[in-house]
Amino acid sequence: MNRSLLNLYDLNLAELTEFVAGLGEPAYRAKQIWQWLYRRYAADFAEMTNLPRSLRERLAANAALDVGPVIAEQRSSDGRTKKVLFQLADGQQIETVLMRYEKRRTLCISAQAGCAMGCVFCATGQMGFFRHLSVAEIVAQVIHFARELAAEGEHVTNVVFMGMGEPLHNYENTVTAVDRLTDPAGFNLGARKITISTVGLAPAIRRYADEKRQTTLAVSLHAATDAERDKLIPVNRKWPIADIIEACRYYVEKTGRRITFEWALIAHENDTPEQAQALGRLLQGMLCHVNLIPLNPTQKYGGQPSSRARVDAFQQELARYGVSSAVRVRRGIDIQAGCGQLKAAARKL
Prior knowledge:
The protein has 349 residues and is α/β, with parallel strands linked by helices. It has helices at 13-22, 27-38, 53-62, 123-127, 135-150, 171-182, 202-210, 226-232, 241-255, 273-283, 308-320, 341-347, and strands spanning 6-7, 63-64, 70-75, 81-87, 93-100, 105-108, 112-114, 129-132, 158-161, 194-198, 216-220, 259-265, 288-294, 325-327.
């Protein structure tokens, strides 16, 4: 994709109408193009057969439709998980994962190229931060797989911002992309079918709460004491646990919505009874749920996933404090489907 071309997924309908008017076309052409973008998932302007050929040619010369070419792809042995690596116009690379469940087709998408949060167990955090993704680069990940699923008679049911990057660090583009994906006249995905994950940027959580958005918020906590979390998540030194929990309680109060906490269980690190008890005390009485995920190992971090026995013991401790939890099904372990792992592997080639 040429960097000088305007990506149409960066535009809302009013902006698209203005762009089309600049090409000397009537406003209804913008609505036709919009339908091709968000309902028919056109991969090329040549597919837009209800547009004049002259307009299709001008669009091809002045605009783009995609996120960039797929340069690597992996599929899990059970066929239920597919991970692709896109190359963006400036050479940066991002990952997107399709996970097939019994009744759901969930996309795990990226919000940044790299990540500035530096979580020690995360492959993306280990590679550092390169840049924010544009609205188009976020939205087009979804459209890529929507097109693929539509060809199989299926559709995207859920989107989680749990790929590369910290979504709330790229706040404006993330929420604009969400607005685009939930637009009833556009992609029309229900807001509650989208989850935004954050490592805990307390001011952004409060802003998100004030906007009273209906998308689900998931906080990657991973430790219940600052001493432990400082070791795992360096940004905790800027926004310690007390600030994060206060912001989360504010979110629940303002929105009335349940908040989710993510916890990557690392054997003999954060899966101890003491950590479970500390977490129970932190969350007791809050409208929340904890997703327990045995660690997805990465090459640059020596930690290992917790055993089933330790997972069960952790969950039982949380139950003593009245905190609901579930052990999340891990997908794509055989293809290292955790965020950043495919890009890390590609960089070695």
